[in-house]
Design goal:
Strand order of the largest sheet: 4-5-6-7
Order of helices and strands: EEEEEEEEEEEEEEEEEEEEE
Shape: globular
Largest sheet: 4 strands, antiparallel
Number of helices: 0
Number of strands: 21
Radius of gyration: 19 Å
Strand content: 35-45%
Length: 251
C-alpha cells in the first residue's frame, strides 16, 4: 500500500509492477499515515490528512479501516483531527492501535495528541494531550515491548501572513504502560523551544532511541555568529541508550 498527501491510497499485489487505486470512492483524498495489523494483515488503517506545514497542505477527515485487505474502508471517527501523522498497530492484538494526531494547521483544536483504541476503532481515548496548539507528529514503539511507546509532540500554527513551527509545547514523551501514563523526557535535550521531532527505536535493543530535533537553545551572544558556545545545544540528532532517561547530542 502507498498513501499520497493528495492522491489517496494505492495497492500492489505484484511487488510494485502495477498499482491500482483503492480509496477513490471515499470523501477524502489525503492519506497522512497508514498501518497494517501484524496480527491480521487484512486489517488496514488509514489516517487522513497530511502533517506537513505548507499553505497547500491537504486536510483530512478522520480514520478509515479496512478488514478485507484494502478493498473497502469504513470511517471509524476522529473526523476533527484534520491531520494524522503516524499509526502504530499492536503486534498481536488486532483491536489495538495508537495514532499521532497533529491537529489543525491553521488554528487550535482539542482533537490532537495521541489516541488509542482497544476495540478496533469503535471507541477512541485521547491518552496524551499537551494543549490545543500542540499535536503529535511522530510515534514509535519498542519492537520488543508493545507497552513502551515514544511520542513527539509538536506545537505549530500557520496563518495567512506566516508560520510558527515551534514552541514550549513541543517535546518527547514516553509511556511504559501502553499509554495510560506518560513521562516527558528532557535530560540532555535542548532546553529552549523545540519544533518538529522525528523518532526511531533500534530494532534489536529497545533501550536505544534516537531523535532528530529541531531546536535552537543558544544563549544570546553565543553560538552561531556570536563566538564559541561549547555547551550549545540546538538542531541535530540526539540518542539515548536508557529508554530516553538521558540523551546525548550526536551531530
Amino acid at each position: 500500500f502507498v498513501g499520497f498527501a493528495t492522491g489517496g491510497v494505492w495497492k500492489t499485489t505484484n511487488n510494485g509492477v502495477t498499482f491500482r487505486p483503492v480509496f477513490d470512492t471515499y470523501d477524502i483524498a489525503s492519506a497522512g499515515a497508514m498501518a497494517i495489523s501484524p496480527a491480521n494483515t487484512d486489517i488496514v488503517w488509514i489516517g487522513t490528512g497530511e502533517s506537513n506545514n505548507r499553505q497547500s497542505s491537504s486536510f483530512g477527515a478522520g480514520v478509515y479501516k479496512s478488514t478485507d485487505g484494502g478493498e473497502t474502508f469504513t470511517l471509524m471517527g476522529l473526523t476533527e483531527t484534520q491531520s494524522i501523522a503516524r499509526m502504530i498497530a499492536h503486534p498481536t492484538d488486532p483491536d489495538v492501535l495508537w495514532l499521532a494526531a497533529n491537529g489543525r494547521l491553521f488554528g487550535p483544536n482539542p482533537e490532537r495528541g495521541v489516541y488509542k483504541t482497544t476495540d478496533g476503532g469503535q471507541n477512541w481515548e485521547r491518552v496524551l494531550f499537551v494543549d490545543e496548539h500542540t499535536g503529535a507528529i511522530d510515534l514509535v514503539m519498542d519492537p520488543n515491548d508493545p507497552m513502551t511507546l515514544f511520542a513527539a509532540m509538536y506545537q505549530r500554527q500557520r496563518r495567512t501572513w506566516g508560520f510558527n513551527g515551534g514552541g514550549p509545547g513541543s517535546g518527547i514523551y514516553r509511556t511504559v504502560d501502553g499509554g495510560s501514563s506518560w513521562t516527558e523526557l528532557t535530560d540532555g535535550l535542548p532546553q529552549g523551544d523545540k519544533g518538529r521531532i522525528g523518532l526511531d527505536v533500534y530494532r534489536r535493543d529497545g533501550n536505544v532511541v534516537c531523535a532528530l530535533v529541531e531546536a535552537d537553545a543558544r544563549t544570546p551572544g553565543q553560538g552561531r555568529g556570536g563566538g564559541p558556545a561549547p555547551d550549545d545545544q540546538e538542531n541535530g540528532v540526539y540518542c539515548s541508550s536508557d529508554r530516553g532517561d538521558s540523551w546525548q547530542q550526536m551531530s
